[in-house]
Design a protein that fits this description.
Length: 171
């Protein structure tokens, strides 16, 4: 009886932890979000095609690998830009979800790029504007993790919305 409530809460908390750990620059944050999506899929709360599940698993591992192999993202390791990128990605994801599910991931990428641009306009983020190679490196080392994590959160949210009649009626 309570398992029907506990599993989706645990999966959602793991995904939210993955998103919030992006702000602190945790390298395995996209893997956390993927673990939450995997739990929800295996327990039947969201329905994903196996190829989609494998794709997001590989994407999460690649994003974690790039983040681990990259040098420090910011001078001094402050991590102030991660919040800009995360908010931009979530805003882009929500705009994409309101348009169509196929636009969701692309709009998260655009939102992350805009978040990085806005961060580079702040006094603490001026170092990002120094050259295009620094901008691209910061996007790859930080932005890709954030894009994968927010895309996974968006896919799970959409999966819950598609199955909302099941949860509202009670199975």
């Amino acid at each position: 009886m309570y398992v029907d409530l506990i599993v989706p809460v645990i999966g959602s908390v793991v995904i939210a932890t993955g998103l919030l750990s992006e702000v602190r620059g945790f390298s395995f944050s996209s893997a956390l979000a993927y673990a939450g999506m995997l739990v929800l899929h295996l327990c039947g709360y969201i329905n994903l095609v196996d190829s989609s599940l494998a794709f997001w698993g590989i994407a999460a591992l690649l994003a974690c690998g790039i983040a681990l192999l990259s040098p420090r993202e910011e001078p001094g390791g402050a991590g102030k830009g991660n919040l800009y990128l995360l908010l931009g990605s979530v805003a882009g994801l929500l705009v994409g979800m309101s348009i169509d599910a196929s636009v969701m991931i692309f709009s998260a990428i655009i939102g992350t790029l805009l978040g990085e641009f806005f961060y580079s306009c702040t006094p603490k983020g001026r170092w990002v504007k120094f050259s295009i190679s620094i901008f691209i490196h910061y996007f790859c080392s930080v932005g890709l993790k954030i894009i994968v994590s927010t895309a996974i959160a968006g896919i799970v949210t959409e999966g819950f919305l598609r199955n909302r009649d099941y949860y509202l009626i009670g199975g």
